[in-house]
Amino acid sequence: xxxxxxxxxxxxxxxxxxxxxxxEDLFGYxxxxxxxxxxxxxxxxxGDNGSGKTTILKLVFYILSTDSSKGYKTALANTKFKSxxxxxxxxxxxxxxxxxxxxxGFLYGIRSNGNTYECNVGVEMEGGKPNGNIIVNRxxxxxNKGYAALxxxxxxxxxxxxxxxxxxxxxxxxxxxxxxxxKRNRAIFEQGLDYAIDGELLRRKANxxxxxxxxxxxxxxxxxxxxxxxxxxxxxxxxxxxxxYMELIxxxxxxxxxxxxSENKFDNKANILEQLKILSVRNKELSNxxxxxxxxxxxxxxxxxxxxxxxxxxxxxxxxxxxxxGSNAKILALDEIYNVIISFINYVNEYFxxxxxxxxxxxxxxxxxxxxxxxxxxxxxxxxxxxxxxxxNTITADTATIFIIDEPEISLNIKWQRRLLSSLLHFxxxxxxxxxxxxxxxxxxxxxxxxxxRLVNEHV
Length: 460
What we know:
Elements: E1 18-26, E2 30-35, E3 42-46, H1 53-64, H2 72-77, E4 81-88, E5 93-102, E6 106-112, E7 115-121, E8 123-125, E9 134-136, H3 138-142, H4 145-155, E10 161-164, E11 170-172, H5 181-190, H6 196-211, H7 214-232, H8 241-255, H9 269-288, H10 297-305, H11 310-351, E12 355-360, E13 364-369, H12 382-396, E14 402-406, H13 414-427, E15 434-438, H14 442-446, E16 452-454
Parallel strand pairs: 3-15, 3-16, 10-14, 14-15
Antiparallel strand pairs: 1-2, 1-4, 4-5, 5-6, 6-7, 8-9, 10-11, 12-13
Helix pairs in contact: 5-6, 7-12, 8-11, 9-10, 9-11, 12-13
């Protein structure tokens, strides 16, 4: 089986990774200055229970997010702190500040190359009641030109931040281009009764989506992620009939020309057969997953073995040259996605001892028990679900520059914890991703001490 030769990256090249996080008076009494080697792609926050690890992860995500529709700035307003400054490896600072440690409005800003852009984010009580929850004033988000200009500058950093919460729900820092289900429904009904049927179908589809488990949705997303890449490369190496016939005619004409200047990549029959053998093996690997159509290269090789005429071999070699080039181009284009699939399957099956995961392009992923019965994803153990969600979300978040994970060790046994971070780094190999992780796991810490940043309260 062909395996990728790529190794887990040990450093990131992008300028948009975290270099340090400064938090003053978190909850009124914790001040932390977390510094990290920004060339390292793993950043592990460790501290005692109650010291604010999860809150720090959330604050970093909220402050870097430019999605104004999810309540992230309201969450910032409801967290007690005096200031938070996230410094990126390119020197840019994104910050939120107050005059004192409290909940409520804050000054939001970005400092870049000596220039500071900032705006006030005001709040109000939900429902206007004194004992209501604090919410960001909608006008501060929707109509504030300063806020819009500030978030635009953050967007221009081309920094995608993903946050995988302890329940394995994924949040993204950027605004989804698709409208929410609520907005789609409302748009349909506002257009009148003619769309009532469409609206009902949309509601039913939405209810079915809601009924699916998080892990079912994750694997559907994974399958769609694979299909989108296969379709993207589907025409690579292919030629239309007109081009093929033109090349055939040219090859035959060249073979009868005393001044044959056409390129012949194959010196002899053995060379052709060797190329076909290689293609046969690679094509079989990809066609087993349905990524490419199966092709009987062996039948073609059998015909070639029976040809003795040098002139015929010369013509055939010229005809086969573009065919082999095209086949190699398609296989090379699909190599990356094949390596992701086979690597994922191998990792999962190494972890599982009584189950096996499989994949096909048309069926997606499925799991079978050693007794042959299919195992629904939602019937896996909590540890198995958490592990698969970690891997799937890491693979499919392929636009990420920063991936924040809260307590990745949840529900995992000691053996799995020891190998967890190395597997995440493997699945992100070749991509410039910085992982920011909060953990209690001694196993995760012991194997990655160079990446550990301990929470030390500067007030003490």
